[in-house]
Amino acid sequence: METVIVANNLSYHYAAEKERYALQNVSLSFLQGELVALVGPNGSGKTTFIKLLTGLLEPNEGYVEVLGRKPQKLKEEGLLGTQIGLVFQNPDNQIVAAVVEEDVAFGPENLNLPTGEIIKRVEEALKLTGLWELRQRASYALSGGQKQRLAIAGALALRPRILLLDEPTSMLDPAGRQEVLNLLLKLNEEEKLTIIFITHYMEEALRAKRLIAFDRGRVAFDGTPNNFFRQKPLVQQLGLDVPPLYKLMERLWKEKIFIPDTVTTPEMLVEEICRLR
Amino acid sequence: MPITLNEVTFVYNPGTPMEVIALNNINLNFNEGIITGIIGPTGSGKSTLLMLLNGLLTPTRGNVVVDGLITSKKGNLKAIRQKVQLIFQYPEHQLFAETVFDELTFGPKNFGREITEEQAAELLRQVGLDESYLKRSPFELSGGEKRRLAIASVLGISPKYLILDEPAAALDPAGKETIYRLLLSLKKQGVTVIIVSHNMDEVAYLCDQIVVLDRGRIAAFGEKIEVFHKLMEKNIPGLSLPVYAQVIKLLQSRGHKVKMTISLEETVGEIVRVVRGND
Question: What's the whole-model pTM score?
C-alpha cells in the first residue's frame, strides 16, 4: 500500500508559548485507504497536527510530506485542495454560496476547469454525499448534518485522495452525527479515500480502523481502537471514556461470552449473540 | 411549588405567513429536587420551552407558573429570574469581564447582592476550580474551564431552578465528567435542574425524569425508564436510543424475550440469558 502522508519528527510551539510544545517529536505515516481517528484531551495537539499536515502551520522542527511533496509548496501552487480535503467543526464557516450546487462548484471553478468538467464534478460530489436531490436548495436552509455533508462535498469536488476532518460531528445532533459518520465510512470503503478525523466521541473512534491518541503534544497510542480501549489506565489518564458498547463487550467476555473484538455497532453485536446461541 | 405549564401553546409570528406553532397545548410539571431531561429532534420545540420557563418568552395561550408566579405578568419577572436561571449553549461565549472575580460578581450585583472574595472562591470550588483562578483573565482558561466559570457565575445568584441547554456539548470526556458531577451535586443540594441534551447516554445517566418533544407536542413524559420503554415502541426520527436499549431492542426484534433496560449490568444479564437459551 502506498504511503500518502509522512510526518517526520514534527515539533511545533505557538509563538506566545515558547516553553510549551503544542507538538513534540511526532513521527507518523499514513497509507492509502486508511480510516484513522485522532483522539485526546483538549490541548493535546490534535488540531495542531492537522494544521501542520495541511501547511496551515509550518513545523519548527521536522517535516511533512503529502504524496511526496511539502504541503506549503502545494499550497503555493494552489493544488493543496486537490490532494487533501479539509473540513472543520462548524459547517457554517465553510459554506460560501447561497445555493447548494453553487457552493460545491466554488472549488473547481477556482481551478479554472472547463465548464463541462465542473458540472461533472459537482454532480459526482453531490451524489456521493447524498445531496443530489437538494442541489437547488438554499444552503442556509439545510440541517446541521446536511450542511456538514455539503462542506464535505465541496472538498470532494476537488477530487482529493485524503480527507482531514477536525471534529466534523461535534456541533451536530445525533441524526446529523450518524449521517456524517456513515458518509465517512462509505467514502473510505467504496472510494478508498484516506480519511483522518478528530473526534471526542469514543463510539465514533471505535468505528475507525486505526486510532491515534495524543497526550500533551506526543503520540500516546497508535493501533486499533479495540486495543486502545483495552488499556484502561491509559484511557483514563487521557481523560477519555470507554464507549458503552465496548464496556458491554468487556463484561460479556468476563461471563465467558466471546464476542469477537471486531464488533463496533449494536447490530454487529446482536448478530454475534444470535450466532452464539 | 414547582414549575407548571398549563395548556401552553407558543406561536412564532402569529397571523403572518411565517407563522410557526412551536409548542402545541403542553401540560407539564417540573418536579423539585430532581434532574429533568428535555430531548427531541432539532426543531421539536426544546429551546422555546426553555425560554418559556424563565419568562424570556410568554405563552401565546395558556400559562407558565413558577412557584405560584405567572410569567406573563411583567411585575413577576424579576422574582422569577432570580429563581430560574437559564444557561444557553456555549455560555463561555458570553464571558466578558477582565478577571474571573469580576465575572463571578457581576450577576449577583444585578440582583443587589455583593459577593466577597471568599464567596467567589467557594463558587469556584463548587465547579472544581480553586481560588488561584480569581485574578486570571477568563479568556486564558481552557474551553472546559470557561464553561465551568460561566456556570459558577450563575450559581452566585443561588437559583432554585437551573436550566441548561446542552451543558456538556463539545467538551472532551473529562470536561463532560466534571459537568456531570457538578449537576449531580447541585441536585443533592436541592437545586432543581433541567437540561436539554441530544446525547441519549448522557440523559440516561444523569436524569430522573424525561420529557420527549416531537414537533411541538409531548411524545413522552415520565420516569426515565418508562420513557425509554415508550421510545422503543414509537420511532421518532432524529432520536436514537441509548446504546444498551438499542441492543435490547435488536434482540427483541429477533424474537428474544428480553427485558427493556438502560443499565449495563442488566443488559449483560439479559444477553447471558439469551446466549444460554434461557429466554
Answer: 0.80
